[in-house]
Structure formats: structure tokens, C-alpha cells
Amino acid sequence: MQIQRIVRLASGGLILLALLIDTSGLYKYPFVKQLENWTYDTRLNFTRLDTIDDRIVIVDIDENSLAEVGRWPWSRDKLAILTNNLFSHYEVDVVSFDIVFAEKDESSGLEKFEQLARTSLKNSPEYIQALDEIRPSLLHDEIFAESLVGKNIVMGYYFKTNLQEGEIGVIGLLPPALTKMDAQWSERLPINKAAGYGGNLEILQASAKSGGYFDNPFVDSDGVFRRVPLVQSYEGYLYASLALATAQSHLDAAGIQLAVETEGSKGGKEYYALESINVADYKIPVDANGAVFVPYRGTQGSFPYIPAHKVLSRQVNPLALKDKIVLIGTSAPGLLDLRSTPVQNIYPGVEVHANIISGILDDRIKHKPAWTVGYEFVLLIVIAISMALILPLVSPLLAAVATVGVSGVVMAGTFVAWNSNLILPLASPMLLIVLLFMMHMSYGFFIESRGKRQLANLFGHYIPPELVDEMSESPDEYSLEGENREMTVLFSDVRGFTTISEGMDPKQLTQLMNALLTPMTRVIHKNRGTIDKYMGDAIMSFWGAPITDSEHARHALYAAMEMMDELVIMQEDFKQRGWPTVKIGIGLNTGNMNVGNMGSEFRMAYTVLGDAVNLGSRLEGLTKNYGVDIIVSESTKNAIPEFVFRELDLVRVKGKNEPVAIFEPVGHKNDLEKSITSEITSYKKALMNFRAQSWDKAELDFFNLNRLNPERFLYQLYMDRIMHFRNEPPGDDWDGVFTHTSK
User: Which residues are CB-neighbours of 708 under 8 A, at least 6 positions away?
Assistant: First the structure.
């Protein structure tokens, strides 16, 4: 036993060690990361707000706007109108473009006009004069730039983390940086360092108040946007994301502060970790990379969407935009700004920025601080020790309950932390719990399987595998040693078997018996019975051993009635094969019996013996005398009070002096028709008159019963007895008992 415990502990230790390697970062298992992403997405979707934040409005370059205004890119003079309308007419607070304007707008045709002025029309003063007059209206970039001046506008651009060979590294102009990074910060903070950028035209960026990048170098391996960096560095300077720059403009913050903490040393150097970014009075928790987990409010539409063409034509209610934060972006599929997110597979990129801004303003940014690695390490060890102490000592059911309990504690703690904006690891603890439970249960299964095989060797010939499985839960309770128990025994026998066997050849007879006994055995097993033996055409079975069964009488009766139903189904098959109709009789008795492995040194059998067993055999033999299929004793009848029985007789069977009452099961009380209930009432009255020797009344009662139910042999039997007793009265001391002299 000690060795088995050591093996269990060693197996659990190996599982723990494997997960600790992942937690420590020595080697990362991709499937654990995928599982952690799944648990994060589940928590996010389970707790998301699913409300609309109307502080932030998305002016959407959607399909309808493209149809109304024309294909993208639109001329910059239209964008100037859009910008002027937003600030002058609608009085918005901030406008951020989730778009980069890296190329000149040549849609006005000014260059062509000027080329004509230099060539074929250079001698036309009228043309040159007209061109000079309209030139200001054709300078679309200048018109757009003028609309940006003096307004709270954030221009979008993107950084390039990796440059391909031959790729242009720098395009356009960057906005002013947040700050110049300290040399030691730049070296030791794991903030993404960009290799290049794609910025706006210099005239546009210089006219705007600020700018923010909209690229995301931290997209997870499955392509899902979970984390977005609020800051990136380029050539020693730190730059803000579009969401951070927009929040800064909205809050009218003069600057942004970085909270950098020293966390010991690595390789003899101080180790710096970025803990938060502070904007005005708002503290934004970030991870070591300067990234935040996007606090998605819900699926697409968590913010009001207004088509851009309606802003251009001033068709929007001014109250919908007054003092709002406006993000100009696109949801049109053809413009390629759709992302995969935890809340929706196809999600507009502009709404990702909106969620971050909303989270900053509501203090809903969830944080996964650096200390969660230590927490995860300790938690895994505590779980492993707890389960190692509990699971080997309890039953499989209690082990499952304990495992569910440990899982519940871990998950509850994780969700409490989640509601406090802390992201604690969940995948590795839950994986450890499941693996340890499976390991302990598998180990127990293989050990227990030996005991199960022993039980199968002892009882497999008598009971179904399902009961062997049940017995294996406590194998020490079962043995083949003899004992005395209250049990129920069942005997069934084929009527007229001799006649049937004489009319069939041996092969057919064997096939018939197999076709009969197999379904009958299946029914007995189904109702938790134990097969004692087959005696030619007869079956002997019992209930209440080897497994103790407090409802052995009920299970035996249900088996007997189901055997009769099964026989009716078999008759059709027998008829198609050309076999004779088969009828069986069944006797049931409940009482104390001796049960155990009995026999000789040459052959042993697990069987039952006793007077109660003999009575069950006699009852089966009486079925043909009363024209019924099943006869049960009074003790069996009393054990099943929900059933209605018809008392057949009070008899003395061969080999037994004491009279016994015998009964035929009729059906469950709740299932009987009124006509059957009425018939049984009339029968009881007739039987009472019979035993009182009121022959005339009894004969009339049985005559009426026989007339209504001529197929029931029992009524004719009692009319024949009345005729006999008229001629040979039984005497005044007659106790109503009929003595059977044959088996």
C-alpha cells in the first residue's frame, strides 16, 4: 500500500513539474496558452456589459456612405467639410481619424490643369487667369489641413515592427512624441520598438493637434485582438496609441506620465517594469509591454454609429454629436479594417479603439500584474498538495465532489479578482486539477480492476456485468460463503415441453431453447436478478444476493411480468420459423433462504436452498392448474403493496402441511381499468361465499363472472368445485384449503 501511495505521489509530482515549467517560462506549451486565451474569452463574454456608451460616437464610412459619396478614398475637400461640420455645426469635443493620409490628393486634376498651362495653353491668358482663380479650391490637401487647424483632432498612423527587404521604412510625418525615453528605460523596458512608420502628409499632421498609432504588434497567435499597446517607442522616443492620444485630448491633459518601478536585478542590472500610464487623474494599468487588455463592452454596436454621408449632409440630430468623442473609421468590408476579437469574429477595428477609450474613462481596464506568475506558481503547488492528501483516501464519488470543490474555489477566486479588474491565470490550475483527478481515478481504476476481475470470476456466471461493477465499489462485502437472508426466488418452466420436444429435431429444439432462454435471462439481469441455473426448459433465479436488495420482491415480480411480455413478442418469430407456440408458467416466493457456494469438491455452484425455495418451485407447478401465467405467495404479495393481486386459492402443496394463500398479479393500482377493478371486487365476493359454503350464491357469482370472462379458467374451476361439494360436502370444520397431491 505504501508503494502504491508513493507511485501516486510521484505521478502527481511529474504533472505538477510539467506545469511549473510552463509557468516559470522555461518552456511554454502552446496548448496551455490557447486554453488560457479560451478561459479569458469566456470570462470576458460572461461579464461583458452589453450596453451602449454614447459618450463615444463612430462616424462610419460604411457601404451606404460609399454609395452616396463615392468610392474610397474620398477627396480631401469632402473630409474638410466633414471635419468642419463636426466641430462648427455639431460641436463635438474630439475627432480621431482611424485612417492614415500618407499620399497626396490628386483627385482635383490640378496637376493636369497646370501641365496644360505649361504646354498647349501657355499662351492663353484667359486660361491662366481662370486657373489662378480656381486653384485655391483645387488644393484639397491644403483645404483639409486648414480644417484641422486649431481643433481637437488626433490623426492616425501606424508603426512598422519589422521591415521587409526593400521596403520604405519612413513615410510622412510623426506627431510630437510623448517623451524621450531614458537610456536605461529604452534598453530594459520590453516596450515594442518600431523599425519604421507610415505617417500622414506633413501638411496634415502639422496642422492637427496630435496623433496616435492604430497598429497592434501584440495580436495573439490565433489572430485575436485581446491586448493592444498604449505606447510604442521609435528611435528613443515614446508615442501614444490612437486610443491613448484621444483620451488625452478629451481630458485636456497636458502630458502623460509613466509609472516605472524597479523590480530587483537581473544579471547585475536593475530590472524595470512599466506598471501604469497616468493621464490627468486616470491611472491606466498596463503590462510590462505597455499593453492593455481591451475592455470590450459587447459585440459590434456597443457605441453609436452614424454614417459619414449623413454628417456631410447635416442630416444628424445635433444632440447625437454635441460634446462627443468622435472616431472616424470604417465598417465596410472592402476597406479591410475588420478584426477578430473575443466577442465577435468580424469586428470593426475602429470600435477596438472606442472600447479602450471607454475603459480608460470608466476605470475598467483589467490588469495582469507581474506578480501573477508567483501567484500561479504557489497556487499550483497548493492544489497538488491538497489533492494528493484527499483523493487517495476517499471513494471515487467523494473524490469527484472534492475535485469539483477545489475547482469551484479556484474559479470563484478568479472571478472575484476579475471583478476587481485583476486577471488571474485559470487555465493551468484547472488543467492541473483535471489531470490530477484523471491520474488518481485511472490509478484507482487499474488497482480496483483486479478486484473486479476477482468478483467477475466469482459471480460472473450468475449476474450481469453491471452488478459486478456495482459490487466492485466495495468488494470486501461479497463472498461465496453461506448465509441466511430474506430473498425472493423465481421458477419458470415451459408447459408441455415433452410434446414440443417430440415434434422437433434436436437441432431445432436447441435453437428454440436458446431463442427462449436468452431474452428471458436478459430480462432477469435487467431487473437485478441472479441466475441460479438452467434446468432443461426451466430457469431458476433469485433476488437479494449476492447484492443486498431491499426491493427484491418487487424486482422479481417486474421481471416475471416482463418475461411474459417478452414471450408474446417471441411468438411471432417462432411462428415465422415454423416452431410451435410456447407457454410458460412462473412461480415467485419470498422468504428466508440459505445462499452460498454449495456442492462437492468436484463441482460447486452459487445457489439457494430452503423451504421457501421449494415453495417457489411448487407455485410454478400450480400455474397450469389455475390457468394463469404467474403465481406468487402471500409473502411476495405483501412486499409489493402498490400492486393489485387476485387471490387464487388457499392450498396445501405437496411436502408442506401449512396452507398457503396463492395470488395472481393483476397490475399496478394506478394502471387498472374500472372494469378490472369491478371484476376483482365481484370475484372476492364469490370467493367469500364459496368459503362460507353458500353454494347457490357462490355458483351464481362465478356463473356471472364466467359469462363476462369465459376465457378465465379460474371461474369454471370454482364452478366445478361447487358441483363436487354439493355431492360431497366438505363438512362444517372445512377451512377452505385445497390440497394438491402433485408437484
Answer: 679
How is residue 621 written as a grid cell?
407447478
Is-contact 66 72, C-beta < 8 A? yes
Q: How far apart are CA 220 and CA 241, in angstroms?
A: 18
Q: What is the pLDDT of residue 185?
A: 66
| Rounded Cα–Cα distance for residues 128 and 496 (Å) | 126
Domains, the chain, with CATH or none: 2-47+371-451 (no CATH), 56-362 (no CATH), 483-667 (3.30.70.1230), 673-732 (no CATH)
CA distance 504 to 390: 64
pTM beyond 0.85, yes or no: no
Question: What's the average model confidence in pLDDT over 370-380?
Answer: 90
Q: Report the DSSP beta bridge partners of residue 533.
A: 540
Q: What is the pLDDT of residue 734?
A: 86
Report residue 175 as a C-alpha cell: 506627431
Would you give the distance in Å from CA 304 to the centre of its chain?
35
Task: Read off the pLDDT of residues 396-419 as tens digits, 9 standing for 90 and up.
Answer: 788 889 999 999 999 999 999 999
What average pLDDT is seen over the chain? 86
* Contact predicate 201/104, CB 8 Å: yes
Task: Report the DSSP pairing between strands 738-739 and 643-652.
Answer: parallel
Cell triple for residue 184?
536605461
Q: How many CB atoms lie within 10 A of CB 720?
A: 11
Can you tell me which residue has the cell 481662370? 130
| 654 neighbors 741 (Cβ within 8 angstroms) | yes
Q: Which three cell numbers stand for residue 604?
A: 460447486
Residue 609 CB neighbours (<10 A): 13
Cell matching residue 403: 475535485
Cα separation, 361 vs 197, in Å, equals 28
Per-residue b or e along 502-527, where b marks 16 or more CB atoms closer than 10 Å to that residue's CB: eeeeeeebeebbeebbebbbebbbeb
Task: Give the rounded percent of residues in the chain with a pLDDT score beyond 90.
Answer: 58
**Residue 687, phi then psi, degrees to nearest 5:** -70, -35
The C-alpha atoms of residue 640 and residue 669 are separated, in whole angstroms, by: 11
- What are 238's strand-pairing partners? 179, 233
pLDDT tens for each residue of 9-39 = 888 889 989 999 988 888 899 999 999 999 9
Q: Return the bridge partners of 156, or none.
A: 212
User: SS3 of 190, please?
Assistant: coil
Q: Read off the pLDDT of each residue in 475-500 and give the average, rounded to a whole number.
A: 78
Average pLDDT in the 656-675 region? Answer: 90
Computed over its alpha carbons, how large is the radius of gyration of the chain? 46
For the segment 656-676, the average pLDDT, to the nearest whole number, is 90
Query: Is residue 481 predicted with pLDDT exceeding 80?
Result: no
In this structure, the number of other CB atoms found within 10 A of the CB of residue 592 comes to 12
Burial of 121 (0-12, 13-18, 19+ CB in 10 A): middle
Tell me which residue of 100, 274, 265, 263 sits closest to 175, measured CA to CA: 100
Residues 17, 11: Cα–Cα separation, whole Å? 10
C-alpha cell at 312: 456631410
Q: Could you give the 3-state DSSP secondary structure of residue 11?
A: helix
Average pLDDT of span 549-571: 93
**396 Cβ contact partners less than 8 Å away, ≥ 6 residues apart:** 441, 444, 473
pLDDT value, residue 741? 65
Torsions phi, psi for 99 (to 5 deg): -145, 145
Which cell numbers in the block locate residue 349? 477595428
- Retrieve residue 381's grid coordinates: 503547488
For residue 222, pLDDT over 60 is answered with yes
Segment (H or E) for 702:
helix 695-708
Q: Which amino acid is at 395?
A: S
Question: Under DSSP, is residue 263 helix (H, G, I), strand (E, B) or coil?
Answer: strand
Give pLDDT tens digits for 261-282. Answer: 544 444 445 556 678 888 888 9
DSSP 476: G
